[in-house]
Amino acid sequence: MRLALSPLHRTRVIRHVLGMLVLLGALNAPAPAQEDGLPILRKGTFEGMSEAQFRAVYPEYFGPQGRGRARPADIPDIFGPGAVLNVGNLCMKVTNMGVNGNPFPNLSSDPAGQWVGTSGVEYLSYFGLAVGAVNPLATSADAIRRVSQNTEWRPATIDPVDRIYKAYDGILNGTRFANDDRDSDPNTAEPRFDEDFLDGRDNDLDGLIDEDFAAMGQQMFSCVIRDDTPQAINAPFNERHVPIGLEVRQLAWAYSIPGFTDFNVVEWTIFNRSGHVLDSLVVGGVVDMDCGPVEENNYWIDDFDLVGYPSGVFPHQTSATDKRLQDSTMRMVNVPPDVAPDSALCSHYDIRIHAFSIIDDNGDDGKTPGIPTFMLVDHTTDPLGVTGPSRVQFLTFRSYRQLQLWQAGGAPLLDAQRFETMVLNQPVRVDAEGLIVQPPAAEKGDIGQWWSCGPWRNVPEGGSVRVTVAFGVAPGDLRTARRWPADYAAYRAGTLDGGELTLLSRYPSFANCYAIQAAFEGVFEERTDWSWLTNGHGRETPVHPQAGEGAITASDCRDMVPRTVTFQGPVDWFDFDCDYCTGAYDSQKRLGMFHRTWSADAPPPNPSLNVAASYNYSANPDRIVPAGDKQVTLAWDNLSEVTPDPKSGWLDFRGYRVWKAAGWTRPVGSAGPSDDNWALLAELRLFYYYDPTNNQLIQRNYAYTESGDSVCPKVTVPNRYFPKGDARCSSPSARSTLDGGCLDTATVEICLRLGDLWDRQSGQVIHTSPSITCVVEPTTHECAYTVGCIVGREFCGDPANRETRVRYPVGRYEMVDREVKNGYVYFYSVTAFDSTGFGQTKLELTGRRAAVEADAVVPQTSVGTGRNVWVVPNPYRGYRTIQDRPSSWDLTPNGSDPTGTHIDFLGLPRGKWTIRIYTVSGDLVQTIGSGEAVNESIRTPVPGFLPDGQPVTRPGYNTQQDNPNDGQARWNLISRNGQDIVSGIYLFTVESDAGTQRGKFVVIR
Question: Would you say residue 135 has pLDDT above 80?
């Protein structure tokens, strides 16, 4: 046998193992420059770790023998098919290890930050969370000022419950700013809102789990991480980790609505769990943005930094529907005295953008048309500036080229350096406005950045600080982006022709950041059920002493005399920031306004689908298996139908779109099908309408004759399917299908009942499955349901305007795709769309089609007798380059699938079986068992590529016998010694309860 590594494989692997090559080269080269005994970080690895070091840092993931299983619920979620935000144009991986993005591309094919969609063009490696603080009770010098960052964050425990959770705006129990469980505070009797963070635990100790949390966007991932777990403390990496004692609740979300699809948001809420006060707490971290196609070697070395792009302060006109406007209808005469009675208190407010970017030097001949931007959106503030910053802004910032020494402005490597970097803005890189003023470097290279915000002084035990950031990508080029400082200066001076509109049209990155900040600012609205509402115009800060604290006397920007607040009295509010826009009040109604941040419309969430990785790879023996013999059975639930619009409260779902991607060959760097790969299979509209004459649901679209026969409307459809053998397939206009059937125009009867789906193009009608029962609530043991408002009804408080819809699991709807071939890879996505408004105001919002490699489905034969097993393809022809191969059977190799190719054994029996493969001389090549993982193998190290000198396990993602009817097994042509097999004739045996069968196949390479 020989050891083979094709040029294509080398191209794919080079990005993943570049840092490992550097480490190998160091064995025979002079030692690289070091700083305090630590090697300088090298590109291509995460914090300089080789794969062996990575396994040592994360022993809980790989198990006692170092053989991990990459499943979606595994912790930490860093390897294999993970949590990927993909409902918008920006596909970004989310982890529960203190970083977001994909710093381990050799261990996972998930995108780090690809745009548009899974394009294979990256704009991010990762950005990490770093939190520093002073421990005033520390007894040793090295524990006084510490920073917890990146690999020092771990899931709270290694219990499977401490994983990443998925939700969306409008999910049951996740309505934001709502009392989902209708409970109250036992001490104050006030209602509690969003008190139970989505983490699988009973955070409010009421006996219920995740019964009242806040969900964001059309896709959200939540998790809890800590810096004081045994795994983090004992990790053998760099300097000894001294935990601060912090818990972080992380939310990451994305939108699928127009204008909000080019950015993702991450929110960290940092809790002090140290048992004592922490001083000078700062939050920040490293940002490593890279621009370029993954198929290009070293694509990150030609980037320029765009420090401060596109930052600035921009007056924003208040919307007429935003109650922060506080016009004359909301004010009594001469209140307040410093504003004219006929003017608004807040006609404008400032949009402050704090951001930095990088850019490819030339756009890679059009392959890299975007500019990635990291943005600080919000953080906890103190209007007086005593306990924390008085407004949102950067504290420190530095941009540098990788491998640059810290003393020369490079990345910090030790906690002492990190803390100093985060608290000392030397030399000055941030001005008094919090805007970045560091001049950009003249040379291109691999750019990194460090940022921070804060500090927060004297954070008590149990206290918390919240920081929100965003990562976005928008079109742009280097020449235009470099004009930003001059255009912004002209805008501020009032000399820019067109003003803000010119900036928005000329700089898409600015338009993207503006949309982010404006969405966060949201609106002020009337609300009477919220406990904490201001009692005066512009008063944003509530003041109320605790028991035993005594009276508090204070005055604000507009008080003529100081006011005194006592423990026995009510909460009083003060205008400490001298801004009418941060405390909206209606003195006519004596009502404070509620601030709804992140106010946006939302399409229905996409339904749960049986081809999703989380559905197929979980321990769910009763799941609906999609793969069949020359067919794929899609099944989904009615989640989209039972989710009210979070803004209007309407149950406005209208239909589903079913998408398919075929012919995907895993282009280098691709994490899944691109937008160009998808084709629409069906648009299925829900038959669900109210009769305006009696306000009742219409039960059917057909009538009955006196004899009891149904009379259905006849509709002409352009793509009616007819099965193999149907006489209509002989028509000259008929178009053949893969299964021997055909498609042709036909006039057919469409008989619809309440709840049916139908496709106008094909005339296909999908009835709800009668065998699928409702989802049962675990507490009440009754059917789960949702109450929402009927579309178009304005007063949802009126029972006549509300309706109830029951929740059903996957299998509520089924659709079969017969246009497939066994052994080939296909992807499917089912999106939901709504329809709201009337006439010219009618608006349709839809979810985004998306899939990652782990969502792939492969049609396969059903079980056989075990006495007639055959191999496909036979012979197997593996040409040197994938482009020369006759079809999309083979995929480009990647880290988890090191050959990208396979042969399939078909006709396998039920139960256990074992396949043994031999050379013609009788040498055992490989053994495959029914319970083993697909593509799992021991890969022999390739000199110059794998640095550790030991065979490397590549875990598979699903088992060979995925279900009882699985009559197919897959082999990736790697021998039991970890080598690629060569051309030749191979023999195989299949041992099962049916006996032993022998066969042979041919490989030509």
Answer: yes
